[in-house]
Amino acid sequence: MKATYYGQSCVAFDFDGHEVLMDPFISYNPLAKGVDVNALLPEYIFLSHGHQDHVADMAQIQKNSQATVAAIVETAAWVRKQGVPDEKVIEFNLGGTIVTSFGTVKMVYAMHTNSTPDGQYGGFPVGFILHSGNKKIYFAGDTALTMEMKLLADLELDWAFLPIGGHYTMDVDDAVKAAEFINCDKIVGVHYDTFPPITIDKVNASEKFANYGKTLYLPAIGESIEL
């Protein structure tokens, strides 16, 4: 199994041949110019919420791949409006778990806002717990630090993908606390450096996680890490 980072919060998982794409925002990201969107052919696309920097390439990638798109109910309604066939849309809600070809995905709480690119209400922002084989992965989506994260502490998470850029989401300091709350030692940072307000000091960020016995992974755009 591996994860490939495509900038902002866009991550592709390869679960033993099952390709899963999270929050596709690539062609509009100036830092991801070397990534060919048309080469991405996932089996599933998951959307944590409807903001442009998480959904901009959803329609094109779905059309190319015929992927199934999964999101909270209101964001899923927007997905259908983009021309995605109903049979290729999975709508579910907080606390719900779906069964997929690669394992299960549970929708969990995130603290943020959510509207779709056309300005409509997008429902709650969310995170996901992906369970494939013997791996449990927390993809937090855009979120502030919340006490609800402590509810994940007993899941024995192998990896967590946490926003660390601040300004719109948790910053590095809060993400360290989040890692403590969820009891996870392997953290992949997302949602940073794309725009000036969310630029971070990578060395300092890594040191802060290390001070708490955590490892912060900051893969380059297009780089993969083994899970």
Walkthrough of the structure:
The structure is a single chain. This protein starts with a strand and ends with a strand. It has helices at residues 52-55, 58-65, 73-81, 172-182, 202-210, and strands spanning 2-5, 11-15, 18-22, 44-46, 68-72, 89-92, 97-99, 104-109, 126-132, 135-139, 159-163, 186-190, 215-217, 224-226. It has a 7-stranded mixed sheet, covered by helices on one side. The protein has a 7-stranded mixed sheet with strand order 7-8-9-10-11-12-13. Helix 5 (202-210) links the parallel strand 12 (186-190) and strand 13 (215-217). The protein is built from 5 helices and 14 strands. The model has no long low-confidence stretch (mean pLDDT 98). The longest helix has 11 residues, at 172-182. With 227 residues, the protein is α/β, with parallel strands linked by helices. The chain has a single domain (2-226), classed as Ribonuclease Z/Hydroxyacylglutathione hydrolase-like (Metallo-beta-lactamase, Chain A), CATH 3.60.15.10.
CATH superfamily: Ribonuclease Z/Hydroxyacylglutathione hydrolase-like
Biggest β-sheet, characterized? Answer: 7 strands, mixed
Helicity range:
10-25%
What form results from the Cα inertia axes?
A: globular
Strand pairing plus helix content: what structural class? alpha/beta
Number of helices: 5
Strand content: 25-35%
